[in-house]
Write a structure and sequence with these properties.
The chain is of the alpha/beta class. Helix content is 33%, strand content 27%.
């Protein structure tokens, strides 16, 4: 993981795991991997050269992960907002270090879903330290997966005993998510993966292909996408139909009343503005699922 993220940068990456940390750690491997990928990726983004250290240790019944870098750092004013969506230090930083600013916001939500907490410390020009913990569990009570941090910063996934819900009948609704931004896709995945089957498309052309290949129950369509935008993808999907047979909900960062009316007039079933609120998103999805049930 870390080697891939660092690429050609001159960064010395190391993992320091204290002796008390067990070889096998019981947690949600997928979420833990995503959290560490986001945090380490953020450190790499803002560190042109120097060091990044991942420390793993135990205090009481908590398992801690601490990522320290020697990057550009953050001033006190911006540090308090570091876990907010779409936040970077300032406009000049955004221009130099491109990105949506969603990575740490996603990490915070995932850490909280695991029952933990996350915090940041930083000094401008000296570097940043991100520390989070998750509850330490015994392997004997593992339900799904064991996440095993390696000395290279990777997370090995070992499948443990699976717990099946005998009361579940049929498959959950299938949602096609057309979104070109990888962090926005990760945010939607975190919001919805526990409730629905998710299919992702990175542009409008891919959305059309996956729509007809997978037969989703609902489509979440980003408007601004490369190759083919949301309007064009909508037109191809609904060609020769006066209205879509499957609800197609527009996702756009342009939260303006006139654009909302334009989207609805074009034929979109509904509209959700970014940054997306998980409760609003699920509420809209459930509204149209119940109508089509």
């Amino acid at each position: 993981m870390a080697t891939t993220l660092i690429g050609d940068k001159t960064i010395d990456f190391s993992v320091q795991k204290r002796n008390l940390v067990p070889a096998n750690i019981v947690s949600d491997a997928q979420k833990l991997h995503a959290i560490l990928t986001n945090i380490i990726g953020n450190s790499v983004k803002f560190t042109d050269q120097g060091k990044i250290i991942l420390e793993i240790y135990i205090e009481g019944d908590r398992l801690y992960f601490k990522v320290s870098d020697t990057g550009i750092g953050i001033d006190d004013l911006n540090l308090k907002n570091i876990f907010e969506e779409f936040t970077q230090a300032d406009s000049s930083t955004t221009r130099k270090y491109q990105g949506t600013g969603l990575g740490l916001a996603i990490s915070k939500k995932m850490v909280e879903l695991l029952g933990g907490e996350i915090k940041a410390e930083s000094k401008l020009g000296e570097g940043t330290v991100i520390t989070f913990f998750v509850p330490l569990k015994s392997q004997a009570i593992a339900d799904d997966e064991i996440a095993v941090p390696t000395e290279h910063g990777d997370i090995k996934k070992v499948v443990g005993r699976q717990v099946l819900n005998a009361g579940t009948v049929g498959q959950p609704p299938k949602i096609l998510v057309a979104e070109d931004d990888e962090f926005a896709r990760a945010a939607v995945r975190m919001m919805l993966e526990h409730r629905y089957q998710l299919v992702f498309a990175k542009n409008g052309k891919e959305a059309i292909e996956k729509f007809f290949a997978t037969s989703p129950d609902i489509v979440l369509m980003d408007i601004m996408m490369p190759i083919m935008d949301g309007y064009q993808a909508f037109a191809e999907i609904t060609k020769n139909r006066s209205k879509p047979t499957v609800p197609i909900i527009a996702l756009t960062a342009k939260a303006m009343i006139d654009e909302r009316e334009e989207l609805l007039a074009y034929g979109f079933t509904d509209y959700i503005s970014k940054p997306i609120d998980d409760e609003i998103l699920i509420g809209v999805i459930e509204k149209y699922i119940s109508r089509n049930a």
